[in-house]
């Protein structure tokens, strides 16, 4: 699908290309999951080559950031679906050519409908593809900041749940299993955010540098510099969250170990407490003919009392040594 964005009457109007005709005044050409026919139509209109999905997925920097035919190609990894249970990394290609912006994507990052909706209400006169690219990149950075902020709040809740002692009758096994699951999901999300920020940082460095005579305006350079600082700060915060999640993971595993030790300690104490009574019962369970206590009237209750006392004494000894 091809969405042609045309600036007219103080707004950016979206014109879906359905009949194979792209308006000549298009300033932003948005290719959403394009077919081969869409690629061919765009190439004929803009006079550039459109990268395939496989080419967009290459990880070499030279394959993601380059100049070709006077057009500047920039591919970034963008976090998509951060609010869902299955976030993914989406490769998005930005192409600046002839004052137009061409984007190629196979998903729906929130930054795109956000920018399109905002400019659809009010759009500066004479907006260029370069200005649209800056708008999109700022929206992507803002979205990354929102995601990291939400992750930070979730990490605080996880931390309180791990170290909160007033858990009532909540099952420890289920609680720690849920905590480990949450930590795993947040760690994966932080890893995606790190990857996206690193990709954006490389893109901004390429955009702000003069390459083969291609450069950006002074205002765009100022915006790129500001975004670079923001991305660096967000990267540091993402690293902090990653370290904190690792600490919480270690703490949770430690808590699970303590719970297991407490259970094992109970069984160990019970085995020691029951050992003397078992010994007494074993002795008097022997079928020997000559046992002096067998003819004693109070032998049975005396044996019972001896077993109870022999069980209480080890327990009191453990309490005195503060082993319990």
Helices and strands: which structural class? Answer: alpha+beta
On the 0 to 100 scale, the average pLDDT is 82
Q: Helical amount among residues, as a percent range?
A: 55-70%
Per CATH, which architecture of the largest domain? 2-Layer Sandwich
Number of helices: 8
Q: Which descriptor suits the 3D outline?
A: rod-shaped
Number of strands: 7
Cα-atom Rg, whole angstroms? Answer: 34 Å
CATH H-level superfamily title of the largest domain: CorA soluble domain-like
End-to-end C-alpha gap: 70 Å
State the name of the first-level CATH class of the largest domain: Alpha Beta
User: Uncertain segments of ≥5 residues (pLDDT<50)?
Assistant: none
Could you spell the SSE succession in H and E letters? EEEHHHEEEEHHHHH
- For this structure, the CATH topology of the largest domain is Beta Polymerase, domain 2
Q: Hey, roughly how much beta strand do the residues contain?
A: 15-25%
């Amino acid at each position: 699908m091809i969405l042609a964005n045309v600036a007219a009457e103080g707004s950016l109007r979206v014109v879906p290309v359905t009949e194979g005709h792209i308006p000549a005044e298009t300033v932003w050409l948005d290719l959403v999951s394009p077919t081969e026919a869409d690629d061919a139509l765009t190439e004929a209109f803009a006079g550039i080559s459109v990268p395939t999905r496989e080419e967009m997925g290459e990880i070499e920097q030279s394959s993601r950031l380059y100049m070709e035919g006077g057009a500047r190609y920039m591919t970034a990894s963008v976090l998509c679906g951060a609010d869902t249970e299955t976030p993914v990394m989406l490769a998005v290609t930005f192409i600046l050519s002839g004052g137009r912006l061409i984007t190629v994507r196979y998903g729906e990052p929130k930054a795109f409908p956000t920018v399109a909706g905002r400019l659809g209400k009010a759009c500066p006169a004479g907006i260029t593809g370069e200005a649209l690219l800056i708008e999109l990149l700022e929206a992507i950075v803002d979205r990354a900041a929102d995601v990291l902020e939400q992750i930070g709040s979730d990490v605080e809740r996880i931390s309180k749940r791990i170290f909160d002692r007033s858990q009532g009758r909540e099952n420890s096994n289920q609680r720690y299993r849920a905590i480990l699951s949450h930590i795993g999901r947040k760690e994966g999300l932080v890893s995606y955010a790190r990857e996206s920020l690193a990709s954006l940082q490389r893109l901004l460095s390429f955009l702000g540098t003069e390459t083969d005579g291609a450069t950006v305006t002074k205002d765009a350079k100022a915006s790129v510099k500001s975004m670079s600082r923001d991305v660096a700060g967000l990267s540091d915060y993402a690293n902090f969250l990653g370290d904190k999640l690792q600490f919480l993971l270690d703490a949770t595993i430690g808590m699970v170990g303590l719970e297991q030790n407490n259970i094992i300690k109970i069984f160990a104490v019970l085995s020691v407490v029951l050992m003397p009574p078992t010994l007494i019962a074993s002795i008097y369970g022997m079928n020997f003919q000559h046992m002096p206590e067998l003819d004693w009237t109070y032998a049975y209750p005396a044996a019972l009392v001896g077993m109870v006392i022999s069980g209480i004494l080890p327990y009191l000894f453990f309490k005195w040594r503060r082993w319990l």
